[in-house]
From TrEMBL:
Keywords: Membrane, Transmembrane, Transmembrane helix. InterPro entries: Csc1-like, CSC1/OSCA1-like_7TM. The chain crosses the membrane at residues 20-50, 71-92, 98-117. GO terms for molecular function: calcium-activated cation channel activity. It comes from the Eukaryota. GO terms for cellular component: plasma membrane. The keyword Ribonucleoprotein does not apply. The keyword Membrane applies. It comes from Rubroshorea leprosula. This is CSC1/OSCA1-like 7TM region domain-containing protein. Residues 5-91 form the CSC1/OSCA1-like 7TM region domain.
Length: 184
């Protein structure tokens, strides 16, 4: 009987789709306001479905440590700045200079908020906490395959640029060319 393997979350296909629909919804609802209810329904249904799947269906194969959140934050900031630029353009085309000029500070404030978040929160996502690293090291000490892994570690990769060059030797003492001329 085959063992059943619990599937993992297909990050490679799901996350870009969610970010793309977020970009479309946030950016283009000025041009087509009819898109907003559909995007809201998509995200509400997505929240219900993905929450159920993450809690009850999928099993995590690895812990990302929150490495995805800077990507989601950057794409959201990009969507907001693009939305502001589109709104300035639309209000400019509709000859609403007051509305267009009132939106000009929004991209600046959004980028300042992004810079604040990068300085405040990005270091948290760049390195794991020491507590987690110590726990992982203690788990690795009890792993029976660790001594074999450490023995093979020094020979695991050899950089070709650092390998000694081996020339082919000929019997006549001369270096032979790579291509020989055809004998007649």
């Amino acid at each position: 009987m085959d063992d059943f393997e619990v599937p993992s979350v297909p990050y490679h296909s799901e996350i870009p789709r969610i970010l793309f629909f977020g970009l479309l919804g946030v950016t283009y609802f000025f041009l087509a306001p009819l898109i907003l209810p559909f995007i809201l329904v998509y995200f509400c249904m997505g929240y219900i479905i993905y929450r159920n799947q993450l809690l009850n269906v999928y099993a995590p194969k690895f812990e990302t440590g929150g490495k995805f959140w800077p990507i989601a934050h950057n794409s959201t900031i990009f969507s907001l700045v693009l939305m502001h630029v589109i709104a300035i353009g639309i209000f400019g085309l509709k000859k609403l200079p007051l509305a267009s000029s009132l939106i000009i500070p929004l991209p600046v404030l959004t980028l300042l908020f992004n810079e604040y978040c990068r300085k405040r929160f990005l270091p948290i996502f760049k390195a794991y906490p020491t507590e987690c690293l110590i726990k992982k090291d203690r788990e690795d000490l009890n792993d029976p395959s660790m001594p074999q892994f450490l023995e093979n570690l020094d020979a695991a990769y050899h950089d070709p640029a650092l390998m000694p060059i081996q020339y082919s030797s000929s019997t006549d003492g001369h270096n032979s060319p790579l291509l020989r001329a055809a004998e007649v």
